[in-house]
Known about the structure:
Layout (H helix, E strand, L loop, with lengths): L3 H20 L11 E6 L2 E13 L1 H4 E2 L3 H10 L6 E11 L4 E4 L14 H7 L9 E3 L5 H4 L3 E2 L2 E2 L5 E3 L2 H7 L2 H6 L2 H19 L10 E4 L2 E5 L8 E7 L2 E5 L7 H4 L6 E2 L5 H18 L2 E3 L8 E6 L4 E5 L14
Parallel strand pairs: 5-6, 6-9, 13-15
Antiparallel strand pairs: 1-2, 2-4, 3-14, 4-5, 7-8, 10-11, 11-12, 12-13, 15-16, 16-17
Amino acid sequence: MPTMLTRITGLTAGVLFAAAAQAEAPMVKEQAPGYYRTMLGSFEITALSDGTVKLPVDKLLLNTTEEHVHNTLADNFLSAPLDTSVNGYLINTGNHLVLVDTGAGSLFGPTLGKLVEHLKASGYEPADVDEIYITHMHPDHVGGLISDGEIVFPNAIVRASVEDQNFWLNEDNLKAADEGSKGFFKGAMASLNPYVESGQFKPFDKDQELVPGISAVSASGHTPGHSLYKVKSGDNTLMLWGDLIHVAAVQFPQPDIAIQFDVNSEQAVESRAQAFADAQETGYWVGSAHLSFPGLGHLKSADQGYEFIPANYQGGVGDTETGK
């Protein structure tokens, strides 16, 4: 007959074995497909994640010091290099399916390039998209247009500011650029030229409606033709900011802090100041490429600068109007 000690020892061994078996389950280490859906009036908005990339923002930000950036990030439980979201936005107006920015594709490293995968997970196919609006021609916004040199969105008209076209698709500008900037020109050309050659690229002049409910708004500085997109359905408005802001924790309190990626940092600061003031005054929704996914929310004034209020998570999406 087993003794009490034998029974206890056997029980202990069983518990340890069960714990060991559970501990051996491999960690998945992946997020769920990166899309988030909400309604803006009668328009369906789907935020699409292209992934995140670690940026040495302490080295990149201008009009500040590395110490200030480190301290501000630490105050927000962050550090450099900073995991930085890259977001695109899909707008279903009922008559048009419009994609704003396409992510990096293969142009920005292995942690990005997931936008098309997430678009499919959200219930759409690249062939469903009939309009693509580019905020500007940096690689993390246009790289998703192509894959292995082939067009990804076969039925889409691609639109961007003629000013960005004249700057980034210009061979003379490529030749004159310093070595650190040539990759930006090459990435833009590789991504846009297949659409130019197929007749699918149609640049626009600043500040005009592109399809009913969606208008381009000039916000030059980050690039010569950097554009915001105003999405309006009924009394509801969403302003898509592109690269108006890169580091929320630092630049919302101090909008005059710029970044080395700006072609004209003084002009970029002016555009950001105007957009922030408009968003705070009107209370409309904003969405941005480098705010933490899904990058949607509102702006309000703070003791210093502004405070970003992220969208409250919705577990289901119906026909209820939201926003202003």
